[in-house]
Specification:
Layout (H helix, E strand, L loop, with lengths): L10 H12 L4 E6 L5 E5 L6 H13 L3 E5 L2 E8 L4 E5 L3 H13 L3 E4 L15 E3 L3 H7 L6 E5 L4 H14 L3 E4 L3 H13 L4 H5 L14 H18 L6 H4 L1
Parallel strand pairs: 5-6, 5-8, 6-7, 8-9
Antiparallel strand pairs: 1-2, 1-4, 3-4
Length: 243
């Protein structure tokens, strides 16, 4: 998600940017079009005034471009990690969600230790891990540009992944289940050390409320909610004003 403006980047900025990209962290190269100077702004870093507002908007949209602030022109070269979707549970919803997520540009992988469900026949062309989340996430950690959807209904499988999503700052956390099921989930997560604020981030019942009934409809609702969370990340917490 960049414009190629990096060809004019000074070596120090380039080194910093490459470090951020390797770590899957978002950054914007801000170039003053008047004097050619540039600076790297990391997501969450405070930039005051109108330029800060423009930078916050660029982080949310992922779009590079020029802006004019207080009579000065800047080019914002945006570098965002590609968002990804990690699904816990090789279930019917996951089967419908996988091709939809691919089309929408969200690489999807599925984790489910139940080998009867996690099969290549059921999930062709999908990154599939027939292992426990603890083992998979140790080598493929979650991060702030990952969405996690827990769909198994099995606390032994879902709960660890949900706690890991909190710890990693995933931009979206959703879990399948009724309000009664979720109330029990909350008790377990609190016992695991999750905070009330972290648990409040869980979208449960999962998905935008469109009256979805079938697995395919639920998959549409989940993907829509993931996209909504990605495009609005940081705004509710006021990060857009501070960044």
């Amino acid at each position: 998600m960049s414009s190629g403006w990096g060809e004019r980047m000074n070596p120090v900025s380039l080194k910093k940017l490459n470090e951020e990209r390797r770590a899957r962290r978002a950054a914007i190269l801000v170039t003053d079009l008047g004097d050619g100077s540039d600076r790297l702004v990391r997501e969450g870093e405070a930039v005051q005034g109108g330029l800060g507002d423009a930078i916050a908007k660029a982080f949310r949209s992922g779009s590079s471009g020029s802006v004019e602030v207080d009579g000065r022109a800047f080019f914002l070269n945006v570098h965002l990690p590609q968002p990804r979707l990690v699904v816990i549970g090789a279930v019917h919803i996951s089967q419908a969600l996988a091709p939809m997520a691919r089309v929408a540009g969200y690489p999807l992988e599925i984790i489910d230790p139940r080998t009867a469900f996690a099969t290549e026949d059921r999930f062709p062309d999908v990154t599939l891990h027939a292992e426990w989340p603890e083992n998979v996430l140790a080598g493929r950690p979650l991060d702030g540009y990952t969405a996690l959807a827990a769909l198994t209904h099995d606390p032994k499988i879902d709960d660890f992944a949900l706690k890991a999503a909190f710890d990693a700052g995933c931009f979206y956390v959703g879990a399948l289940g009724s309000r009664k099921t979720h109330a029990k989930r909350v008790e377990r997560l609190l016992a695991m050390g999750a905070t009330a604020d972290e648990i409040a981030r869980i979208h449960a019942p999962i998905g935008i409320d469109i009256g979805a009934a079938s697995p395919s409809e639920i998959a549409v609702a989940v993907l829509a909610q993931v996209i909504q969370a990605f495009r609005s990340r940081g705004a509710a917490a006021g990060r857009g004003e501070a960044a």
